[in-house]
Design brief:
There is one protein chain. By secondary structure, this protein is of the alpha+beta class. The protein folds into three domains: 2-139, Immunoglobulin-like; 152-313 and 414-538, Alpha/Beta hydrolase fold, catalytic domain (Rossmann fold, 3-Layer(aba) Sandwich); 315-412, no CATH class. The chain is built from 14 helices and 24 strands. The strands form five sheets. Strands 12-13-15-14-18-19-22-23-24 form a nine-stranded mixed sheet, with helices on both faces. Strands 3, 4, 6, 7, 8, 9 and 11 form a seven-stranded antiparallel sheet that branches. A four-stranded mixed sheet has the order 1-5-2-10, with no helix packed on it. The longest helix has 16 residues, at 253-268. Mean pLDDT is 91; it is low at 1-12 and 501-539.
Length: 539
Amino acid sequence: MLVAAGFITARAQTPTLRFELSTSARPASGRLFVIIGKTDRPEPRNTIGETGMNATPILARDVKNFGLGITAAVDRTAAIFPIESLDALPAGDYYVQALFDSNIDLKSVNAPGNLYSDIQRVHLDPRRASTVKLELTKVIPPEQPPPDDPYVKYVKIQSKLLTRFHGRPIYLRAGLILPKDYDLHDNRHYPLRIHIAGYGTRYTSVQHLMAPSSEFRRMWLADDTPRMVYLQLDGDGPYGDPYQVNSDNNGPYGDAITQELIPHIEKKFRVIPQPYARVLDGESTGGWVSLALKVFYPDFFNAVWSSCPDGVDFRGFQLIDIYKDKNAYVDELGVARPSKRDINGNVEFTIRHECQMENVMGRGDSWTMSGQQWGAWNAAYGPRGRDGRPAPLWDPKSGEINKSIVEHWKKYDLRLVLEQNWKTLGPKVRAKIHIAVGDADSYFLNNAVHMLDDFLKRADPPAEARITYGARQGHCWSILTEGQMLEEMFVAVEQSKPRRSALWEEQKSVEVVGRPSGTDYGGRTAVHGSVSAAWATTQ
């Protein structure tokens, strides 16, 4: 609700706890949050998106043309999480902060240009009428990547494809890590390792990987580590993590990555501009994205190493079968579907609970606009609705699945895509797929991996895929260390080189150090599915 400054409409309900928000900024439309923290460390605004019943209470509502001369009221009519209503807030002392999310290009709540207030320590009691006034005087500054250093570089380019789709400038960002001695050998070119990390990981994460005391830095700069250029894709976009594939809502991200970003990097840095030299890996969100890029662009990339991938078969979309189930929140017996469990199987929170958090974060009180996990999946896999926003696979409140939407989702069911197109895809991905997942994955992602494995075992021509399971292992378990995976990537690149071509003669100087021999993986898990002869030899 927006009202003119200095004029507040009284409600029949009393007493009323309300928050009055104002700013001197230019008018804009977006999502307005009030965060009610028990502590000021971290700042309450940085707790938005937490789950669990102990999460910081957050109220939110949409506002239009919020700016100088306009006061916005947030009260018991606003969406709220995790408590059922503002009236259920226990009386006590709190640290209150407001945030206004108006950035439409990056969905993280702390995106550039978003406004926020100072933190106020106040006593709140819903049983007594009171008004808390918050002025949003601070603005999140324009994007500024960290400075480059000898090993870490950053890239930001305007995408013509995405700009054309969205009708405004859209940028692709990436972080890079150069190999040891890169500057010492001007004539040497290197394979490209394209990494996609967990949900929402920003391109600047390469800075932390190469921190002075990090184990990754020690491994990366070791004398026996294979020499590659490391590329980290960016995990933020108009609807949250864009999942790096073409979609009706995000736009042609997959084409932008393969036609614009990677060719730009191969020109700017000394990277071998050939499919055999491009290898993929990722975990969780990145596990799905890396596998999807190999499936959708099989001639552009070499092999993929996918850890704990998001649902690779939509019969196991976490615990939802989108083709048969009627409701996302409860099963056929009316039992709430878990979203996350601990290693012992205890439920930490349900899908309904998590989507309620996203309903509070999303414009229109809908998880489809939250910029969080379920909303990003829906934006990537689903069609665009008549209102111009991602059409929800299920109703935000009831969880009832809209079966008319399911057909569109099939385009992103990786098992289904592989199975339906195996005659052409099979030879292109043969012995190129490596997947690892814990059989006690926190988000039940192992179920869909087993479904994909069932197909790959019987695929004709043979898949020769390696799928490994970690007994009693949770989310983001992998059979390989970073160093072991790099060694396997080295083997894949070496085996795929066009050795007799003129190109090979030009690129013989590529330095790749550290050839694996008889790597011992400690027998941590059995290998399931088809196993390539090359892998069996290393065992």
